[in-house]
Design a protein that fits this description.
This protein is an alpha/beta fold. The protein is about 40% helix and about 15% strand. A hairpin with a 4-residue loop joins β2 and β3. α4 packs antiparallel against α11, α9 packs parallel to α10 and α13 packs across α14.
């Protein structure tokens, strides 16, 4: 560990939660250099939906490398890119009646968001963008402006403008439809809200605490954007590629966003890869207006094509994700009922789930206990109060239950040591009492 302490920047974060040197991984397991095995319920923060080193993807990648396939080609046409585009179009877009142009951006999710925001402003000639409470879209400056988290925003070193924050679904309580509030301010010329170029939203907020937008809320949001000629951007970087059960997280709502961002599990193998999907009429780019040396990772094209062919040629994989998501939901609900003095709650869709443990101290103790017992799992939410389940989608049911068993045992042990579990503040009930 000495070299990491001596010269690696203090900016490291996950390494603090899992202080081991890891050197091998397969499927839903990761191993440290001492040979200790851990179940991985972090999955590269949602980058490894198909697990570590999937054997089929690995075989295709090795074949490509041994054949001296193009590794780096800027944005030139390569066979690997063409195969990916054909496969993505035939097996992802066309079956869903989706018609999009594909832009290859720099290989990170935040770069895809930057491109999407730039494109929306370019197309509409407007600057303002609507983003939502607890949203997370990246930490480069444009994406960071749309991100809600104060910890990340505080590191910017400059003002973050061009964005108006609106309440996400449920933020103002169960009885308030926050899309109605958005509609009101857009219709009121004295609201102080400039007409936006775009609205950017996650259907399930991952880093924000596993907050789920209902299908009804998403449809209302899409209708508002359509009426006001505002572009709808769905950030599907963490919730996409099957995490919620369907390839795109918005499919349940039956909407067709104007722009979509994808990254994380798109390559299928943990290789850096990001795209922006845009409706054809929005492709206003001039050559090179948004570029980058590493736009279009040919190695990632190979594994992404293999992933789509293997998992998305029929609906078997999607059904398995939904089934395992139901297992997680049922078990987490029982855990929340049994522990936390009735103050723990669950949330999520598909295999993107969380237990809200009220405060970050308790959730942190739980995840640290899990790691001691052979499970890697992290927290999310404004105060890191949510134990976040992002296990590989290919995990066996036996290992899925084994991992949840470890979480339940950790919750049992930690709760037994707590004098009392704090209640979540119900701001709106407090307001009613005060009035």
């Amino acid at each position: 560990m000495k070299i990491f302490e001596e010269i690696e920047s203090e900016v490291q974060s996950y390494a603090r939660s899992f202080p081991r040197i890891f050197n091998r991984a397969e499927g839903e397991h990761i191993y440290d250099e001492d040979g200790n095995q851990y179940l991985d319920f972090l999955a590269g923060a949602g980058t490894l939906n198909y697990g570590h080193n999937h054997p089929l993807f690995k075989e295709k990648l090795i074949e490509y490398i041994q054949a001296d396939g193009i590794t780096h080609g800027l944005d030139m046409h390569t066979k690997a890119k063409g195969d990916f585009l054909n496969t993505f179009n035939d097996k992802i877009l066309k079956p869903r009646d989706l018609d999009y142009m594909v832009q290859f951006t720099g290989p990170t999710g935040t770069n895809a968001v930057e491109a999407a925001l730039k494109l929306a402003r370019n197309v509409t000639g407007r600057e303002n963008v609507i983003a939502f409470t607890n949203g997370f879209h990246g930490v480069s400056l444009g994406a960071l402006a749309t991100t809600g988290n104060s910890h990340h925003r505080g590191a910017a070193g400059t003002s973050l403008g061009g964005v108006t924050r609106m309440p996400f679904d449920g933020y103002l309580g169960e009885d308030v439809c926050t899309t109605a509030y958005l509609e009101k301010v857009l219709n009121d010329s004295s609201s102080g809200i400039d007409k936006p170029a775009a609205v950017i939203v996650e259907c399930v907020q991952g880093e924000g605490g596993i907050n789920v937008a209902s299908a009804q809320w998403l449809r209302a949001l899409a209708d508002i954007c359509n009426r006001h000629k505002i572009l709808l951007i769905v950030d599907d970087i963490q919730a996409g590629c099957g995490r919620t059960g369907s390839f795109f997280s918005f499919e349940e709502a039956g909407i067709k966003p104007d722009i979509i961002t994808l990254s994380k599990s798109l390559s299928g193998y943990g290789l850096p890869f990001a795209v922006v999907l845009m409706k054809p009429e929005l492709d206003h780019w001039k050559p090179g207006e948004h570029n980058g040396t590493f736009r279009g990772n040919n190695l990632a094209f190979i594994t992404a094509t293999a992933a789509i062919n293997h998992f998305w040629s029929d609906d078997k994989f999607s059904k398995s994700v939904i089934h395992k998501g139901q297992i997680i939901e049922k078990r987490l609900n029982k855990i929340a009922d049994a522990y936390g003095e009735g103050n723990f709650v669950t949330s999520g869709r598909g295999m993107m789930r969380g237990i809200n443990c009220v405060n970050g101290d308790i959730a942190g103790k739980i995840t640290r206990k899990c790691f001691q017992n052979g499970l890697m799992i992290e927290t999310s939410g404004a105060d890191d109060q949510v134990v976040k389940f992002l296990c590989p989608l290919i995990i066996s049911e036996a290992n899925l239950n084994k991992g949840i068993d470890i979480v339940e045992a950790a919750i049992h042990d930690i709760c037994a040591k707590e004098d009392n579990i704090p209640e979540s503040d119900d701001y709106f009930d407090d307001v009613k009492l005060a009035s």
